[in-house]
Amino acid sequence: MNRSIVSTVCLLLCIGLAHAAPPAAKPAADKALDAALPKAAASACALPPKVDPFTFWDSCKDVRMNGCTLEANCRKADGSWRNATFDMNKFPQCYSDFFGGRNLVNRNGTLCCGYAGTPQICGT
Q1: The domain containing residue 105 runs over which residues?
Q2: DSSP assignment, residue 46?
Q3: Residues with Cβ < 8 Å from 36, sequence gap 6 or more?
Q4: With CB atoms 3.0 to 4.6 Å apart as the test, which of 28, 68, 83, 90 could cross-link to 45 if both were Cys?
């Protein structure tokens, strides 16, 4: 009986794999656009995502873009606020975490990217 259950499961898996749809191909226009744009262009001059629990979004306010410069009022360790900026042209150069990707953090009122043990890129 166990052998027939195993055989049935294997048969169902094989049928499912045989009928699985192949991944959809990208339209030619999308492929041409991907080839024309540098990979860094997608993340440059845009606000970073709100995905990391240790992000600047939790301790900065009035976040805005001024051209390619991110501007925000960020809280310092003493509780005061500081106007901070970060040149988003540098964001693609930031080290990327395997799980979270690139992100900015508030380091005592200064916006920086990079992770522990990696070089930091900081704004003003």
Answers
A1: 45-122
A2: S
A3: none
A4: 68
In a domain, 38, yes or no: no
Counted domains in the chain: 1
Domain contains 104: yes
**63-96: per-residue pLDDT in tens?**
999 999 999 999 999 999 999 999 999 988 888 8
Q: Residue 1 falls within a domain, yes or no?
A: no
Q: How far is CA 14 from CA 8, 17, 21, in A?
A: 10, 5, 14
11-59 per-position pLDDT tens digit = 444 444 344 444 455 455 445 444 443 444 444 688 887 776 678 999 9
Spatial contact of 53 and 106, defined as CB atoms under 8 Å apart: no
Q: Tokens 């920086």 appear where?
A: 112
pTM, full prediction: 0.61
- The identity of residue 8, as a single letter, is T
Residue 68 lies in a domain: yes
List C-alpha distances in Å: 9 to 4, 12, 18, 112: 9, 5, 14, 52
